[in-house]
């Protein structure tokens, strides 16, 4: 429940901070350059997101072809998606955070931090909390009668 409070607070505070920064930048460089800069960062970020997304998709497919679980690449894909969404919001702070998420070294660092804190639970076959699944039955070997 605590994380929900932080998320709600962030959703309330982030637009106010974004608007404040937009007003300050607009006052410093003018309204037209500010609008052009916001549009430019969105277009540049979208282009970078597409390129990084395809690169990650190629690595996911290569890992799956080798029979590996591409967990790191999947997490990187999730970060690329969130970064792309941040780039669609108008504002400089969300653009900076989104562009940082599209940089491969920053993305790898975020994945490593996540994996260091992640708890992986492996359950045996069947439902979590149950033992191994047992299927009872009878069998007969065909070659038993030939000896």
Q: What do you see in this structure?
A:
By secondary structure, the chain is mostly helical. The protein has one domain (2-119). It is built from five helices and no strands. The protein has helices at residues 2-29, 31-65, 71-88, 92-102, 104-117. α1 (2-29) crosses α2, α3 (71-88) runs antiparallel to α4 (92-102) and α3 packs across α5 (104-117). The termini are far apart.
Task: Please write out the topology.
Blueprint: H1 2-29, H2 31-65, H3 71-88, H4 92-102, H5 104-117
Helix pairs in contact: 1-2, 2-3, 2-4, 3-4, 3-5
Q: Which residues sit in consecutive blocks of at least 5 with pLDDT less than 50? A: none
Largest sheet descriptor: none
Shape, principal axes of CA atoms? elongated
Structural class: mainly alpha
Classify the beta-strand content into a percent band.
under 5%
The beta-strand count equals: 0
* Rg calculated over all Cα atoms: 25 Å
Total domain units? 1
- What percentage of residues falls in helices of 4 or more residues? over 70%
How many H/I helical runs?
5
What is the ordering of alpha helices and beta strands? HHHHH
Overall pLDDT confidence? 84
In whole angstroms, the N-to-C terminal distance is 69 Å
Pick out its properties.
single chain; 147 residues; mainly alpha
Compact overview of the structure:
By secondary structure, the protein is an all-alpha fold. The protein has helices at residues 2-29, 31-65, 71-88, 92-102, 104-117.
């Amino acid at each position: 429940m605590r994380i929900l409070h932080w998320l709600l607070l962030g959703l309330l505070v982030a637009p106010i901070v974004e608007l404040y920064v937009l007003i300050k930048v607009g006052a410093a460089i003018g309204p037209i350059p500010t609008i052009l800069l916001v549009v430019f960062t969105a277009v540049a970020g979208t282009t970078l997101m597409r390129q990084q997304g395809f690169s990650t998709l190629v690595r996911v497919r290569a890992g799956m072809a080798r029979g590996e679980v591409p967990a790191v690449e999947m997490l990187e894909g999730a970060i690329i998606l969130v970064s792309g969404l941040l780039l669609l919001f108008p504002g400089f702070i969300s653009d900076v955070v989104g562009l940082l998420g599209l940089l491969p070294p920053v993305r790898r660092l975020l994945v490593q931090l996540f994996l260091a804190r992640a708890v992986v639970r492996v359950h045996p076959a069947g439902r979590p909390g149950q033992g191994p699944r047992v299927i009872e039955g009878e069998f007969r070997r065909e070659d038993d009668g030939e000896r």
